[in-house]
């Protein structure tokens, strides 16, 4: 029997590898793939918007929706035709395929390494998407570029051009030409919106961005975006280059349209005003503290109305940093936009279910979105405090990033997490303004929610810097008794020890960064950034919980 089974197994794998076509999922399998994304209706309060802004928002949303088909065609030349064909199939399988196609903005399942799930598409997503001719090799491109004049080389490698084959030869085509028909419509809607809004910074951004879509010169509108601070928050255009798997040169069209969250914006302002005080009290050697913090990169908190194009597939973005253009970053820095209602949806659909599986039953009531989101804000601000300079023995100056090299991201993310907790605890204990409420109840909510959120981060796998930093934190806390595993395998917080354990971890991480201690950092990560058996057991129980969310219309 055993031999036969083995033979069959060998035979099956031989057959599978002989054909390049992967087996396509049937209805049951496809539904299981879809079920990994929990549907959510995003809530946004539009009541406070002025009449002009409300009208402008409608126009902007109309413009944004045009980027879905535009992005699909950037991803693959056959996308729109295949989508049309799928939409005519009214069988249960056809409907599921159509639905999953839209969730991925194409025929490949993104979280399954981009393998095709419908017939009529290449079995894997083309590496260079539709930015380059499908038959072009990397070598051909490089040889061609090397022979071009310098200015043409920049264009060939630029964010806003595609490469096409004309009479057999490679040629540069600007986005404004390649996508003219669609971009003329998008630009005209943005112009209309700019006439309707009564906010000056939005008016300026929309108008300049409309021009940029047709001229391919995005500089002025990127600068205007950095200055944008309006009740209606808009990010629209070609931005991220992840879909260009060959070179990472070409930007995909996307949009995030939202409404500013005033409560969180005020909270952010309050924290920003406290940063120097927190820095002056960081749990490190006082001479390693920074007596004068520099200006912080702006942060906006918005509630998403809609996201389209590259921002509308696979795992949902909960925060983003833009622009990517180095010229703008040198001049104006970059801006971080946090999507509060996306975070909230992920919290309810993923974090709460996780807490019901891994936390001690008595602690589950302490899991709180307010504390979850406030800690995310504190995490972002904490990137701006703590050591940013390393004084070397030879008197020269370096930075933690340069000294800690490939270990830096994991340490910096963990530092922002832990120092964010320190910041909140410090304000609970010392702030007299009444703007933040401390005490035993707040502390229980903060640390218990944090413990539950650790498991969500760990699900990303240890190749992810956040997850690596999180595994290290959990093990450190378990070793110090701040977190405990109960005999039944549930996790809990020991409130008598958790504060000191985190403070001590904050001290250790800040000191590693301040001294640029590569060997010490490596030793710490090697020992602690691992999944120990008790963690593995808990993670195993989370398999059925959704991977992510999927925004659906009302
Ligand atoms: Zn971070």
Work out the helix count. Answer: 23
C-alpha Rg, in Å? Answer: 25 Å
Q: Helix amount, in percent?
A: 40-55%
Structural class: alpha+beta
Strand line-up in the sheet with most strands: 6-7-8-10-9
The percent range for strand residues is 5-15%
DSSP strand tally: 15
* Mass-distribution shape: globular
Average pLDDT figure:
93
Bound chemical compounds = zinc ion
What is this entry, summarized?
By secondary structure, this protein is α+β, with helices and mostly antiparallel strands. The protein has helices spanning 2-18, 27-34, 51-65, 67-75, 79-87, 92-104, 138-146, 150-156, 175-178, 180-196, 200-215, 219-227, 262-280, 326-332, 340-358, 369-382, 400-404, 408-430, 440-458, 465-480, 498-515, 518-528, 533-540; strands spanning 37-40, 108-109, 115-116, 161-166, 169-174, 232-238, 253-260, 299-309, 319-322, 335-339, 390-391, 397-398, 483-485, 491-493, 548-551. A hairpin with a 5-residue loop joins strand 13 (483-485) and strand 14 (491-493).
Question: What can you see in these coordinates?
Answer:
The protein is of the alpha+beta class and 554 residues long. Helices cover 53% and strands 12% of the residues. It has a five-stranded mixed beta sheet with strand order 6-7-8-10-9. The chain has a two-stranded parallel ribbon with strand order 1-15. The termini are far apart. The model is unreliable at 1-19 (pLDDT under 50). Residues 379, 383, 413, 416 line the site of zinc ion.
């Amino acid at each position: 029997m055993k031999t036969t089974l083995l033979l069959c197994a060998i035979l099956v794998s031989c057959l599978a590898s002989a054909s390049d076509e992967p087996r396509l999922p049937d209805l049951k399998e496809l539904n299981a793939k879809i079920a990994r994304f929990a549907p959510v209706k995003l809530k946004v309060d539009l009541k406070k918007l002025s009449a002009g802004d409300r009208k402008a928002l409608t126009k902007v949303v109309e413009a944004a929706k045009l980027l879905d088909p535009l992005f699909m065609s950037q991803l693959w030349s056959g996308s729109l035709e295949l989508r049309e064909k799928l939409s005519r199939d009214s069988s249960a399988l056809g409907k599921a395929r159509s639905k999953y196609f839209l969730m991925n903005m194409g025929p490949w399942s993104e979280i399954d390494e981009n393998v095709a799930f419908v017939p009529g598409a290449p079995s894997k997503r083309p590496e260079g998407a539709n930015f380059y001719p499908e038959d072009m090799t990397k070598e051909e491109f490089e040889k061609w570029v090397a022979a071009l004049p310098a200015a043409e080389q920049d264009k060939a490698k630029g964010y806003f051009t595609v490469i096409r084959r004309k009479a057999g030869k490679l040629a540069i085509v600007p986005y404004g030409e390649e996508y003219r028909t669609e971009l003329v419509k998008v630009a005209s809607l943005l112009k209309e919106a700019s006439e309707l809004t009564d906010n000056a910074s939005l008016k300026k951004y929309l108008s300049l961005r409309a021009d940029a879509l047709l001229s391919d010169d995005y500089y002025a509108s990127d600068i205007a975006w950095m200055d944008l601070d309006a009740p209606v928050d808009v990010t629209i255009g070609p931005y991220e280059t992840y879909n260009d798997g060959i070179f990472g040169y070409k930007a995909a069209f996307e949009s995030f349209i939202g409404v500013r969250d005033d409560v969180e914006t005020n909270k952010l302002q309050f924290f920003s005003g406290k940063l120097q005080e927190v820095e002056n009290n960081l749990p490190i050697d006082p001479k390693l503290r920074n007596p004068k913090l520099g200006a912080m990169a702006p942060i906006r908190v918005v509630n998403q109305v809609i996201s389209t194009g590259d921002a509308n597939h696979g795992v949902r973005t909960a925060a983003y940093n833009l622009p990517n253009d180095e010229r703008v970053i040198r001049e104006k820095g970059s801006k971080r936009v946090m999507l509060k209602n996306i975070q909230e949806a992920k919290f309810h659909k993923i974090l709460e279910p996780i807490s019901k599986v891994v936390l001690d039953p008595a602690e589950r009531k302490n899991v709180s979105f307010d504390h979850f989101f406030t800690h995310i804000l504190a995490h972002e601000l904490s990137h701006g405090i703590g050591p940013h300079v390393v004084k070397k023995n030879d008197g020269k100056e370096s930075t933690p990033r340069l000294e800690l090299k490939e270990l830096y991201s994991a340490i910096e993310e963990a530092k922002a997490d832990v120092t964010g907790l320190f910041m909140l605890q410090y304000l609970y204990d010392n702030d007299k303004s009444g703007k933040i409420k401390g005490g035993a109840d707040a502390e229980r909510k903060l640390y218990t929610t944090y413990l539950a959120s650790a498991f969500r981060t760990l699900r990303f796998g240890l190749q992810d810097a956040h997850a690596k930093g999180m595994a290290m934190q959990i093990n450190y806390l378990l070793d110090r008794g701040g977190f405990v595993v109960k005999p039944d395998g549930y996790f809990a917080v020991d409130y008598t020890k958790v504060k000191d354990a985190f403070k001590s971890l904050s001290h250790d991480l800040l000191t590693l960064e301040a001294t640029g201690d590569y060997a010490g950092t490596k030793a710490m990560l090697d020992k602690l950034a691992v999944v120990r058996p008790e963690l593995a057991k808990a993670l195993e129980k989370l398999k059925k919980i959704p991977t992510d969310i999927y925004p659906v219309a009302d």
